[in-house]
Design goal:
- The protein is an alpha+beta fold.
- The protein contains 3 helices and 7 strands; from the N terminus they run βαββββαβαβ.
- Strands 1, 2, 3, 4, 5, 6 and 7 form a 7-stranded antiparallel β-sheet that branches.
């Protein structure tokens, strides 16, 4: 199982926004990518354990879909468009869950929007 978060972004999270959010989580963390799957991963520099996996941003094409899937309300400031950025952490690691929450919060502080977590 994983601890999942979603950043629902008003503005498109470009490379600079994604990198800024990743760095805000901790510049000491090791980063790697899984290019074939469009994933970015952060690892603990001490023991190498996986802390965070972030998927590529996706524009939600169907109006109301984010609300339906997550049970959130998007106000008019989204202008009918929302970018979905999903991130996850291993379920049994409180530090990883905190890293995931901080990433989502940092990203929406850059792009505007809101965050959702599965618990």
């Amino acid at each position: 199982m994983t601890y999942d978060t979603v950043a629902l972004c008003r503005a498109e999270p470009d490379a600079a926004a994604m990198l800024g959010a990743l760095l805000a989580v901790g510049s000491d963390l090791k980063m790697d990518t899984v290019d074939s799957a469009g994933l970015v991963q952060l690892f603990d520099p001490g023991d190498g354990r996986l802390l965070l996996t972030v998927e590529t941003a996706r524009l939600v094409q169907v109006p109301g879909e984010a609300e339906r899937l997550l049970g959130v309300t998007l106000d008019d400031s989204f202008g009918g468009r929302v970018w979905w950025v999903e991130s996850r952490a291993p379920d049994d690691d409180p530090q990883a869950a905190e890293v995931t929450r901080r990433f989502a919060a940092a990203l929406v502080s850059i792009t505007g929007g809101l965050t959702w977590a599965d618990r």
